């Protein structure tokens, strides 16, 4: 059975989500007050509605509570974002994912019941910063306010060294949770496995610990 997801707000963030969901063969409902935006993405959704997401009666008429996830991607109007999220939870939507414009907005969304709060601009800024500072970091993912996952490309310095030899947990307080090697993903790798130059190490730790590790590696 296909998943059904609703996206409210068709700015850059919401529009990109709609296109990705379309590629994943998901039934998508889109809602936006701007007719031009709804028309712009008409090739990517199953149903498009021009309307105000703070209109509770309109949301009810769409059967919004039956959707697997509702993504509130409203751009500039914080009040509308908060009110829409509150209405969706009151209507019994199982999972509401809301875009936050700043940390204060995010805290409010969490308090009123948003299941997931995303900070796309902040997270993208952090990704870019990590890539600029360390040429070996290929991806960065925040998993909490103080902990993250990074993908780090191993170099000749790691060649044929075992995970145990690196002793990353003791030296830096971080852990290798997986290794990408060619087209394979080695999850929870054996501590005795030898690392090859070019392996992508997937590391988890606190932001402070990961920053310390990146700085240390760049100085070697």
Automatic annotation (TrEMBL):
<dbReference type="InterPro" id="IPR006037">
    <property type="entry name" value="RCK_C"/>
</dbReference>
<dbReference type="InterPro" id="IPR050721">
    <property type="entry name" value="Trk_Ktr_HKT_K-transport"/>
</dbReference>
<dbReference type="InterPro" id="IPR003148">
    <property type="entry name" value="RCK_N"/>
</dbReference>
<dbReference type="GO" id="GO:0006813">
    <property type="term" value="P:potassium ion transport"/>
</dbReference>
<dbReference type="GO" id="GO:0008324">
    <property type="term" value="F:monoatomic cation transmembrane transporter activity"/>
</dbReference>
<feature type="domain" description="RCK C-terminal">
    <location>
        <begin position="135"/>
        <end position="219"/>
    </location>
</feature>
<dbReference type="Pfam" id="PF02080">
    <property type="entry name" value="TrkA_C"/>
</dbReference>
<dbReference type="InterPro" id="IPR036291">
    <property type="entry name" value="NAD(P)-bd_dom_sf"/>
</dbReference>
<dbReference type="InterPro" id="IPR036721">
    <property type="entry name" value="RCK_C_sf"/>
</dbReference>
<feature type="domain" description="RCK N-terminal">
    <location>
        <begin position="2"/>
        <end position="118"/>
    </location>
</feature>
<protein>
    <submittedName>
        <fullName>Trk system potassium uptake protein TrkA</fullName>
    </submittedName>
</protein>
<dbReference type="Pfam" id="PF02254">
    <property type="entry name" value="TrkA_N"/>
</dbReference>
């Amino acid at each position: 059975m296909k998943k059904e997801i609703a996206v409210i707000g068709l700015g850059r963030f919401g529009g990109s989500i709609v296109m990705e969901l379309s590629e994943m063969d998901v039934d998508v409902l889109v809602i936006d007050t701007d007719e031009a935006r709804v028309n712009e993405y008409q090739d990517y959704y199953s149903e498009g509605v021009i309307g105000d997401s703070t209109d509770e009666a309109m949301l009810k008429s769409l059967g919004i509570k039956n959707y697997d996830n509702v993504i509130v991607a409203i751009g500039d109007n914080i009040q509308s974002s908060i009110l829409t999220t509150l209405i969706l939870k009151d209507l019994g939507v199982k999972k509401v994912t809301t875009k936050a414009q700043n940390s204060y907005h995010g805290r409010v969304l969490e308090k009123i019941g948003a299941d997931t709060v995303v900070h796309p601009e902040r997270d993208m800024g952090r990704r870019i910063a990590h890539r600029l500072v360390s040429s070996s970091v290929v991806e960065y993912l925040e998993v909490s306010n103080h902990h993250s996952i990074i993908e780090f490309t191993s170099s000749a310095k790691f060649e044929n060294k075992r995970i145990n030899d690196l002793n990353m947990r003791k030296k830096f307080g971080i852990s290798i949770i997986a290794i990408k090697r060619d087209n394979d993903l080695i999850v929870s790798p054996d501590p005795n496995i030898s690392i090859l130059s070019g392996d992508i190490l997937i590391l988890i730790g606190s932001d402070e610990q990961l920053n310390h590790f990146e700085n240390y590696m760049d100085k070697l």
